[in-house]
């Protein structure tokens, strides 16, 4: 019986982490696109070499963050999936709000 509250708590924790990382990943991807556009515009405008190198470095750093958040998001979604599978075996979670929220986050991550 004590497993149900622990499972519910894990659902909340893992859902929150996956949701945060999904959002973070989207923001970093948008930032990378914006920085790449800015870098391309600087090339077209004939900016100084130092400015171009600095802009390119920013794009590379942003790409590294996208890769990092992708990895962390993948792990968080995998852990959430495991908890959701475990929760499906408990009939008390059929209409649970946290369980439904976790499934919605998994669907969003699958897209």
Automatic annotation (TrEMBL):
Gene3D superfamilies: 1.20.58.90. One of its GO terms (cellular component) is microtubule. Keywords: Chaperone, Coiled coil, Cytoplasm, Cytoskeleton, Microtubule. SUPFAM superfamilies: Tubulin chaperone cofactor A. GO terms for molecular function: beta-tubulin binding. The keyword Chaperone applies. InterPro entries: TBCA, TBCA_sf. Residues 18-72 form a coiled coil. GO terms for biological process: post-chaperonin tubulin folding pathway; tubulin complex assembly. It is found in: Cytoplasm, Cytoskeleton. Its main location: cytoplasm. Supercomplex made of cofactors A to E. Cofactors A and D function by capturing and stabilizing tubulin in a quasi-native conformation. Cofactor E binds to the cofactor D-tubulin complex; interaction with cofactor C then causes the release of tubulin polypeptides that are committed to the native state. Belongs to the TBCA family. This is Tubulin-specific chaperone A.
């Amino acid at each position: 019986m004590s497993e149900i509250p622990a499972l519910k708590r894990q659902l909340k924790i893992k859902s929150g982490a996956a949701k945060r990382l999904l959002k973070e990943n989207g923001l970093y991807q948008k930032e990378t696109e914006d920085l790449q556009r800015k870098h391309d515009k600087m090339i077209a405008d004939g900016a100084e070499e130092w400015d171009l190198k600095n802009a390119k470095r920013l794009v590379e750093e942003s790409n590294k963050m996208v890769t990092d958040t992708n990895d962390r998001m993948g792990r968080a979604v995998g852990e959430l999936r495991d908890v959701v599978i475990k929760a499906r075996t408990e009939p008390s979670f059929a209409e649970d709000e946290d369980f439904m929220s976790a499934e919605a986050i998994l669907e969003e991550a699958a897209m």
